[in-house]
Amino acid sequence: MRPSRRFVMGGVVALGAAGPVAAAPRRVASLNSCLDAMLVHLADRSQIAALSHYAREEQGSTVAAQARDLPFTWESAEEIIALQPDLVLASQHSALATRNALKRLRVPVERFVVPKTIEESLGQVRRVAGLIGQPDRGERLIARIQTAVAAATVRPGARRLSALIYQPNGFAAGPHTLVDEMMTLAGFDNAARRYGLKSWGNVPLELLLADPPEVLLVGEPASGARSWADRVMTHPALGALKGRMKQARLPERLLYCGGPVLIQTAQAMARARSEVLGEPA
Fold first, then answer.
1. Per-residue pLDDT averaged across 205-225, rounded?
2. What is the architecture of the domain spanning 5-113?
3. CATH fourth-level superfamily of 156-277
4. Does residue 229 register a pLDDT over 60?
5. Which of 81, 119, 122, 189 is most buried as measured by Cβ atoms within 10 A of its Cβ?
């Protein structure tokens, strides 16, 4: 029978031995796309037992290229247990049945919530890095994120633009979200507040017509397809808004994760602002 295990300071401690012997986990599995990105940037390749199936999705993952030749699961308990991981990284939205099954079998699981601020996100980077025995790598990644965010932050007194993130089905980011803080730093005032959003939600076309923002930050369409925002922008009712409301691209995959994804999010926000204002990037 395998000895039971627990985690202390990011290492595995085998119980029942002569003394605790701390070691970084050798096999780590992720059940979440945001945690996938963390593992790809922080872990040794040999440590990654599996990523989630979302990691390979070109439209939704920032690590799709790296994930092509890494193992993945569909997040079932059977798949995870067969991998015999030392550690599983899960989100608050990971399947409860899977998490409960892993708990019953004493598979170590660390659960993460969705960060609402940059500071919370940096804390999660540090936490994951510590758990997998890569604290120095975590600090280097944090420094890169901070540098990217600082580069995208507008100077005091710079012109601010009202903007709305407008993704498939009119899905938008409101206050109390990580991307709202990124918008603010990049010089955008989030128009979602005007439309009554408290967090993530849908903004009807009628509200855009009645009170349009200066900028729509729209997603990139899938290959061969037009995005929801593209269809909205060509809607006849918006003809009267031509010249008053511009659009700039903000890929959907940059909206929902913190950690290393913030580097690309910051760059995309700064690029969108420059495009709208006609400034050099």
1. 80
2. 3-Layer(aba) Sandwich (3.40)
3. Nitrogenase molybdenum iron protein domain (3.40.50.1980)
4. no
5. 122
Domain spans of the chain, in order of start:
5-113, 156-277
pLDDT greater than 70 at residue 217? yes
Q: Is 164 a residue whose pLDDT tops 80?
A: yes
Give pLDDT, residue 1: 35
Please state, rounded to an integer, the average pLDDT across all residues of the chain: 87
Residues ≥6 apart with Cβ < 8 Å to 104: none
Token pair belonging to 231 = 């269809």
- Under DSSP, the state recorded for 280 is -
Higher pLDDT, 3 or 87: 87
The residue ranges of DSSP E strands in the chain, in sequence order, are: 5-8, 11-14, 28-30, 48-52, 72-73, 87-91, 109-112, 161-166, 171-173, 188-190, 200-202, 215-218, 246-249
Contacts of 204 (CB under 8 A, 6+ apart): 170
Q: Which sign does the torsion angle of CA 267, 191, 213, 157 carry?
A: negative
